[in-house]
Amino acid sequence: MNWLQLLNPNRLGQQSPAKQSNSRSLFEQDYDRIIFSHPFRRLQDKTQVVPLPEDDFVHTRLTHSLEVSSVGRSLGKRVGETVIEKYPELKENGFTPSDFGAIVAAASLAHDIGNPPFGHSGEDAISEFFLYNKLGNQIKDSVTEGEWADLISFEGNAQGFRLFNMPNNKGIQLTYSTLAAFSKYPHESSLKHRIEGRKSQKKYGFFQSEAYYFDELAKALGLNQLAQDEKSWVRHPLAFLVEAADDICYHIIDLEDGCRLGWVPFEQARDLMAAILGDAYMPEKLENTKDENDKISYLRALAINTLITQCVDVFLENEDEILKGEFDKALMDLVPCKKVLREIIDVSIDKIYRSNLVLETEAVGHTVLEGLMQAFIKAAIGQKGAEESSKKNLTVFRLLPNTYQEQIVATGSYYEISRICIDYISGMTDRFAINLYRKLTGITLPGTK
């Protein structure tokens, strides 16, 4: 792979070359397209870790995504400074470090855009509907092996890639480079020949319905294909920086949120962040601030900056292997303070992710999403004549937005019907999903709270 081809400002599906604006680069336009999109705005009411937070300081998917994007921009620009000096042809073709920063910032901004309500428990609930629900399991005989693999393992990354490439959603049509940097797992769900140790094969990045688009993307950028008989490629180099930006934020900021909520003692959070700083930690500077939350915020800023520097160093040390497609590890797994990061994750699992509030909301998420999947998929299939088309099913079907109804009527594929219903349900906010479930089950009457 080579950087000139990897920095491709053309947009997926466009027939003519993209035109550059004098005020904004095409990569900067990607950022603006994402931030003004409906799927991005819905992140303001989607669970990050603490569900439906009442405390303004606790993060939602929206604030998390904005912070990941900020870290991503710093990572991209700092890597870009060195890469452009190393490859003079990049500067000759008008590329700057800001282009690297803009690509990583936009891809980082979008990294959670395909996540359903209730976080990872929402992904599990959608997958388990097809695995264990009688109606969901019946669909197996009507889809291909690859399509079934998509349905029983819902993946937010693949849903995000689908959102960007929907025919009726061209407002978020992104450049090749930003889409590839977003795609941390560039292969299909039914991959059979996984290569042990490759981080990019931990999950998957596109559904069968969007496989054609990824093939076009990979060819345009010159991504190395790992197996000729399977849809599997190496990562775009900047995807490593998107992953690092997310890793940095959830390690440090989840710990900060846990401390603010009183789930993690201040002293423990302070000492963990101080361990990241190492010799740069100066406890005397904390004495000027009395509020513990302000102290943690100060340490969080220093810890993030330290991790940015360490991740940039790891990337640049391995840049040759990354371009060859031989490097496939998380940058954060190789930083000097990786042992401390492991301790932070252990603390977060014990005191945050397994807190009663989080566990109770995950249980609610499973119930709500299974109920919505049952109602809408049954209603959608009912319009195709394969399920009893009762008046109730027709009423529920009409609750779908008109565009979804039209798509369902137009297709004879049970896979596509399922995908369209998942598009609707996974795009809901937490509160909307709960309120709609309560109305469908008769717990709450329409027009009441």
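The above is record 1. Record 2 follows with the same two-line structure.
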Amino acid sequence: MKRTLAFGGLVATSGLLAAGLAAPAHAAGDVASDPLATSGIAVANIIAYWTNESNANLINATPYNVETTIPSKHVSTGGPAPDSKPGIVPAIGDEKKTASKSKNINLPKTTGKVFFTGADHKSHWCSATSVQSAYHNLVATAGHCVYDTETNAATLDNWVFIPGYYQGKTPWGIYVGKQAFTHYDFDVYEDGDRDYAFVTVYNGLKAYNGAVAVNVEDNLAAWKEVTQAAYNQYDPKIRATTTDKAGKTHYWARKFIDAGRLGDNVGGQGLAYNQKVGKPVFVFGYPSGSHPDGNHAYSGQTLKWSYGKTFAAQAPAIKAEELVGVKSSFTGEGSIGSSWLLNYKNTRRLGYLNGVTIGVSDTDKNNRIDTSVSPYFDGELYGVYKAAYSLWSGSIA
């Protein structure tokens, strides 16, 4: 099912709004939502998956390359248009502030990587960013970095967000996904025009004292006593037993330290929707992989940026007729989910999320990637965002 938007005039929005957003009309049925981790034991096992053996699965994860490169003949001019009035949501900390202009590019703390296991049962990652929400617990990325488009299972497994990730380091903790939200048309029909997702995450978690004790007796403070029934559900690598002098067996599970809310630690970008096409945006992400000519331009290890004006685009190959594009040399692997920030201000490293990369293309056919594309952020996207905006997650340490 394809949503057809009426073409019409566009009204640009500028400045920061402290309050009073005019919410566009949207049907509740347009939002699809699926749970990710629903219990403390599930969260602990997901953390264990990524942190066991000195963060081996994090370090060895590869960039997700599903649906990344779009054939050039399938990228053409299109006609996205707003479906209601333009609007913005201010970033965390910018609700009543304005930022001065700056020429130097200071990279945002909000950007990081989402890690998950794919249909191949291997570890992968995409780019993502923290965005404003009622409980400072929301992450935005491409829809196919959350929903399993290969097997049509509901969601990808072991889903976590790590802001500022670098070579196995998790400076602000690991944030396990709680609930995923996307548009109904992407969840059911894989509509490329709706290839975006918002995920609520629990408070960040860190290993106790940054290390794992081999034996419970070596560091009792790093473990918590649990029931035998709970013990049986924990990953074997994060559980242990001891026997007291009376011969009674005690059951233990790894303890994790609460690192606080995502938005409190790294901030959260604002959101802009129904904006005029043709505005300049900064694109922030972790591109990796090679250009078609074999040149390995990016490692995926460090956060990169590009800058350009958006333009209307189409990509029928991924069922997308109402996209926006931007000139960018970001290669597809790793850059999927990159944040497109409108009116980005260096002094606060904040702006308005106005796109997420869902694919790249070599449009001039010179064997070099030159274009990134994103769904157009309209009122239906805002409806999905608002469905996720007020969902509490809290601590599950």
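Residues 208-258 form one domain.
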